[in-house]
From TrEMBL:
GO terms for cellular component: mitochondrion. InterPro entries: Thioredoxin, Thioredoxin-like_sf, Thioredoxin_CS, Thioredoxin_domain. The keyword Plastid does not apply. This is Thioredoxin, mitochondrial. GO terms for biological process: cell redox homeostasis. Residues 24-140 form the Thioredoxin domain. Belongs to the thioredoxin family. NCBIfam families: thioredoxin (TIGR01068). Gene3D superfamilies: Glutaredoxin. Keywords: Disulfide bond, Electron transport, Redox-active center, Transport. Pfam families: Thioredoxin (PF00085). GO terms for molecular function: protein-disulfide reductase activity.
Length: 141
């Protein structure tokens, strides 16, 4: 019963335009629009490989301590770039196929992708200055 009420409320909010029209994100801040969780291989193809905008791909895991530090740090810097770069988050436990395809052997692993190609990569945690340099190199700033 509670689930039914929650679903009805969600649908009524969407009908009134209170939710994003594409149905994948609820937030409206620039940080939320520029960062997204990959849903499956097809979603990765559409939103990362086929993206006209450079994409940083954060391969992470829920159990990974360094991932919990790096992820928010990277999200913050990506949101500051206001759409010049996107951030895709890939949980390796949910998307093992993508982790294997992109040769992820440790987490966190971060790929920089441009026009569907991996142009840069790092493994492990980085400080904000290093992340900023990584992103600037990707966007050519």
């Amino acid at each position: 019963m509670a689930q039914r009420l929650a679903l009805q409320r969600l649908l009524s909010l969407r009908a009134r335009g209170s939710l994003a029209s594409h149905g994948r994100a609820f937030g409206t801040s620039a940080g939320r629009r520029s960062t997204f969780n990959v849903q499956d291989g097809s979603d990765f193809q559409d939103r990362v490989v086929n993206s006209p905008t450079p994409v940083v791909v954060d391969f992470h895991a829920q159990w990974c301590g360094p991932c919990k530090i790096l992820g928010p740090r990277l999200e913050k810097l990506v949101s500051k770039l206001e759409g010049k770069v996107l951030m895709a988050k890939v949980d390796i436990d949910d998307h093992t196929d993508l982790a294997i395809e992109y040769e992820v052997s440790a987490v966190p692993t971060v790929l920089a992708m441009k026009n569907g190609d991996v142009v840069d990569k790092f493994v492990g945690i980085k400080d904000e200055d290093q992340l900023e340099a990584f992103l600037k190199k990707l966007i050519g700033a």
